[in-house]
């Protein structure tokens, strides 16, 4: 088996293992796993509405995954995607509601605002890491809490004491009647195209530009990069900024597409944290992130149909989904297993 | 090889899907014929919970009990005749509402003001379906809006607390700082002041309805500062208030700690050994309202586009049986206030001045 085959095989085997163990859990708690998985399947691909909603759910996951993956390529672990996403969401909704502009200017500006807000949120840990060597994991985690409470306070201020912001102007909305009608009133919006465009952007930066080469080089070995004459500090900051911008855009998906406003958040959305798994699942490559995000988005959305169609309680569903993800994330074990198998074969 | 296995697995799933799908329809048919044997069963009703979940011992649970009762009274089968879906977060509202609409329920309840937007959007798309929202107002011809005069019940809770407190310090733990919960706060504070304006009410919002740990921390702070009665209006967060009170009661049987429950009778929540920390509960009879609206809709008198407000006067609001925690003479005083409010003699304000 070549490496390529192994890389393809690992996620497939992990998903099947996850499904199997999930089935055992359902069986033991007295629910029919076959019905459950059929409900899951229908929840994802059942009809045009389900497909639309699934794609809608995938868009922010792609961007969150890109954000984590991008930082990771420079050797940085950006746990702050969640916070960057929230500030991006708020920035998008604020700019989307506060200004009245023609769509061709308004929509790009709102997206830009979201990316910028996320970038600023990524800039802080980037600078701290580059200049003072403060570990980015700690700073980004803390920045998540700062984001959560700052955004909640801002929502309250901007809306004059209410718990949610005003609806965005239609000129800033990613929603489309066309897509909505196509998918039987789902909330599918144009965000998926933004997300896919960003996949190409990330690929382009990493593979086709000098900056991308430097970023990756820093990720492989800081000292060697320094010795080769690269500005390591600059690259660390730049990586966090771009990563934050992706995360901010993920927030824009929620703000401009799915919700059209932002309500005061009781806790984290979870998309940013799931983004870590999405990125790892996709081996931190742009294309891989699309697959990772598709899996996450589908499971997340499709799982909603399990209580609906198969009467399985939400708690059990959460366990099943977590198990699938767990097995996918522990793909390393399977990879090692496969390699051993391979070696044995070669020895023969 | 591996691809073939995967393909096999996929085709197995598909095959199983077709087979079991067939079973499903069979069962459905049986269900509908058997229920037709009882009362008329072509009416169906469902609800979507807020993030607290259907077992929040409070608001959502009360709504679900109402639907269950309506379902049983009318011989409906759970699943086809009445059902619920639980929301984990804001993103689930639209999804869940749409899922129920797609299952062709005649009437779909959205429990909680947070669902206003989602119901508004879906109601304007699915104009031939009926919706109802609890605690919110949606201005669509096919949506009935249900509100409660929480302030009236909270006023009575305040009166009870003020008459029962020994330390003259009373606490209020709220969920999210929103108009509905503000009504609880306003009524409670006013009720306390009506009895004894000198009593200090410690008001705190936790910012969440589903975080018991926050409620517990807040309750710990309040009890430690000398507060002896806490009224919570915080859904699942309030369960933390109960656990804190129970821990204190368990550590010291003579500890004077009480909780006033909310929405449904939370007596069972307060049971610790053979004592109970629940003073009383302010009942918000979501179940009454849900049954009321369902019955109207069933008879073809669905109050679409209207806002119905339930209060003390129409039994939408009440205090629960205190089971001896409140002495007779205090209960009498509370009843006097209740009568005055129901008759309109006292008008409780909806928000703090």
From TrEMBL, chain A:
It comes from Sporosarcina highlanderae. The chain crosses the membrane at residues 7-28, 58-79, 85-102, 109-128, 134-155, 188-206, 236-259, 271-296, 316-338. Keywords: Cell membrane, Membrane, Transmembrane, Transmembrane helix. It is found in: Cell membrane. It is a multi-pass membrane protein. This is ABC transporter permease. It holds the Pfam family BPD_transp_2. InterPro entries: ABC_transp_permease.
TrEMBL record, chain B:
Residues 44-349 form the ABC transporter substrate-binding protein PnrA-like domain. It is a lipid-anchor. It is found in: Cell membrane. Keywords: Cell membrane, Lipoprotein, Membrane, Signal. It holds the Pfam family Bmp. Coiled coil: none annotated. The keyword Transmembrane does not apply. InterPro entries: BMP_lipoprotein, Peripla_BP_I, PnrA-like. Gene3D superfamilies: 3.40.50.2300. Residues 1-21 form the signal peptide. It comes from the Bacteria. Its main location: membrane. Belongs to the BMP lipoprotein family. This is BMP family protein. It comes from Sporosarcina highlanderae. The lineage of its organism: Bacteria, Bacillati, Bacillota, Bacilli, Bacillales.
